[in-house]
Structures are given as C-alpha cells and as structure tokens.
Design brief:
nine-stranded antiparallel beta sheet, 9 strands, 25% strand, 253 residues
Length: 253
C-alpha cells in the first residue's frame, strides 16, 4: 500500500487513520470493478473546537452476488446536512487481474460541490457501485497519456433503470480538474449528473467550466493509473446499461 501524502490542509494520514480495514475481496475486475468498502466522514463538533469525529462506513464489493440494499430511487433518503469543513471518504477495492487487486481512497469535500457530494454519499451508502466495471480509460489524442478513468454503470440493469433518472442540479465550479480529482460525468444538457464518475489521470483544467470536482484520490493513485484501456471500438455503453455485467462477461472482460 503506497504511503499517503499530505493533503491540501497539510495533514498527514496513515493507513489506519484512513480506515482501510478490509482486504480487497474481488471488487472491480480489469476493465475494473471499483469496490467501495470504506467511508470516513470528519465532522467538526461545534461544541468542541478542534475535536473531530470520524464516522466509518464499510461498503464491500465482491465477485459473487452482492447483497445490495437500494432505497427507492424516486424518494432517496436525504443525507445529513453538511457543515463547513466536513469531508468523508470512500475506499474502492479493485480486482486488476485474477491474482492482483488494489485499492484507492476518495476523499469528498462538500464545500467543493454540495449537490455532487450528497449524490456521491447516496450512491456509496446504497452500494450502487457494487460490481461495477471501470468501462472507460480514455487517452489523450495528442500525447497518448491517460486522460480520465470512468465508472458508474451498474452491473444490474434494474439499478441503472432506477438511478438514471435520479439526476442532480449542477454545482458551480470551484475547484480545478487537476490530476487525482474525482468528478461526476455529465452530458451537454444542464443538470444531467447521475451515477457516472471519472477520475482525472492528468491535469485537465479545460474541463473546469462544466465539470466541478467533488473530491480527490488521497491514496492509491497508482492503482488508478494501472487500469487497462478498454477497446473503444468494440465496447457499447448502451449494451452495458441494458444488459449489465452479462455484456462484458460475454467477451471475457
């Protein structure tokens, strides 16, 4: 597990403080199954200045049939109100190869994009990303560098049908799309963010006006960088949405 660098607030986190309490079972396969296993939220208690409460949630992705509890997407439970300085974490276990797994941790900052942060929390709590595949690793057409890595289509078509209509209003852009930031994908239409997430593999500041980051990878960016490119000429996103994981499984992905 790579050492954790200091975050933007100058704090240094150990693996124990991040809360990595589970080994990767078999979450995302290459093409990758991002596996949400752990969430930490730090809340500043108004009555005790400087005292922090770390709330740990554990979400597990396995290669078997996941036990996913999903609330009615038309009436999602509202997350607790965020307060200034709040943040929470979700750790993703990734099955890179049959005998190789990895993990990356996302820290979400509601002050960056409040609506996006609430949506991220809702999806994590309902384990929407369980058994997802990392279906897109885009390359820069000029340099050949990794551009973004994307996931957020459920392996269960019924969940896609429920959540595709659960779009959220746009957030104003506050932070830049630098390497490691985590962002909701969207169409050209306003208020179109729903379940798909991408991670910036490089600085992509030209995305800033339309794609506000909600957080950043604070541990395991080397894992994100190791995702393999999916052949864009053969992969059909619409089939994945309608057929679930039966589609990628049909050609051994």
């Amino acid at each position: 597990m790579p050492a954790l660098d200091s975050n933007k607030h100058g704090e240094s986190w150990s693996e124990d403080e991040v809360g990595l309490v589970q080994e990767a079972p078999s979450g995302f396969r290459q093409g990758g199954k991002p596996t949400v296993c752990t969430r930490q939220r730090k809340i500043i208690l108004a009555a005790f200045v400087g005292v922090f409460l770390l709330a740990l949630l554990i979400f597990s992705f396995s290669s078997g049939d996941p036990a996913i509890e999903v609330h009615d997407a038309t009436r999602p439970p509202a997350p607790a109100a965020f307060h200034p300085g709040d943040k929470f974490r979700v750790a993703f276990n990734v099955q890179l190869e049959p005998d190789k797994s990895g993990q990356f941790v996302v820290e979400v900052y509601p002050e960056w994009a409040p609506r996006g942060a609430k949506q991220f929390l809702l999806l994590a709590e309902n384990q929407f990303w369980s058994q997802n595949r990392i279906f897109r690793v885009a390359l820069d057409s000029q340099t050949g560098e990794r551009f973004v890595s994307q996931f957020g289509i459920s392996g269960d078509p019924a969940l896609n049908s429920k959540y595709e209509k659960l779009t959220i209003e746009d957030d104003p852009a506050k932070e830049s799309n630098v390497r490691g930031t985590v962002v909701f994908a969207a169409t050209k239409s306003p208020n179109s963010r729903s379940t798909q997430i991408f991670i910036n593999n490089k600085d992509n500041t030209f995305l800033d006006p339309d794609f506000p980051p909600v957080g950043r990878v604070i541990l395991g960016m080397d894992v994100v960088d190791s995702f393999k490119q999916v052949d864009p000429d053969n992969f059909q996103q619409s089939r994945y949405e309608n057929e679930g994981n039966d589609y990628p499984d049909s050609f051994g992905w």
